[in-house]
Amino acid sequence: MNHTLDMNGLIPKLPIIQGGMGVGISLHQLAGHVAAEGGIGIISSAQVGYKEPDFLSHTLEANKRALISEITQAKKLAPNGIIGVNIMVALKHYKEMVQSAINAGTDLIISGAGLPINLPLYARQATNANHATKLVPIVSSGKAADVICKMWDKKHQVAPDALVIEGPLAGGHLGFSIEMLKEKLDILEILKDVKKVVIPFEEKYQRKIPLIVAGGFYTGEDVKHALDSGSDGVQMATRFVTTYECDAPMAYKESYIKAKKEDIGIIKSPVGMPGRAILNSFIQSPPGNKVCRYQCLEKCSVNSIPYCISNALIAAAHGNIDEALLFCGSNAYKANKLEHVNEIFTEINTALA
Hints:
Order of helices and strands: EHEHEHEHEHEEHHEHEHHEEHHH
Mean pLDDT: 92
CATH superfamily of the largest domain: Aldolase class I
CATH topology of the largest domain: TIM Barrel
Number of helices: 13
Structural class: alpha/beta
């Protein structure tokens, strides 16, 4: 069976996207090595400048500078590969990060944690707008896909270059209510709903809008099943954390390897969305919050949130596991060793052969 992922002319050798993971988990090392293997490597823009010396005093400028550097370094690792950026709609400086990514020559932007209604406008306004950056929203339902497609068509006269459909087994922030997550939702059923939604927009813009499933896909056989079931591509994140090439500190990788199935659960994130993470002592007994140092979110109830999400994710990026939010997918407990990115792609290639 032919498994070609064609995002309006952007075609990877393999229909695999490595999911964006922040803070500091998927940067240029992981993204570059994934792209060099023929997949699509994704850099997370979330507080990407956390290592910059002026991060606290000039957070936005530090993040923009670091994002440009990470894209540039990833492209050096994979000169012929595809490098993208994940940018959350919930970020306070969403527009600026979108435009920094495009100006740095990113091949695509994947955007979720909210509805990226104005993403095409911000992309057009970028200095380097002639670079054909593909725009890929993340959705979790046919309803969300319908809203985005209709709004992009009405306001911007474009359709998405692809859609990532993130299911209930994903890590990080989830586009489902707590009640919905208690149901046995099947991402391949959601895929069918989204397929119906995109048909009129495919007809209007005379091109296919590929659909990429995400959440709970861990093995080569998982990938094959998704593609054989009608998906055009698969986004995987958790599997890549326990690679030698992942930008995460060793303590973060070891937390996955040590985790048991019962150690992984649903949390309420300060962003206001449910998320999936390792239920460490920090999450089970959060310290509370009184001060906002970062102004990272468009909306943040500083005094009522259980902890500062930037503090918790930056702690994870530094390996301070006891003070960290450790996002992970539902299958993180399956990790039992470190491996190389190319070993994962060998497994996927074998399954698809």
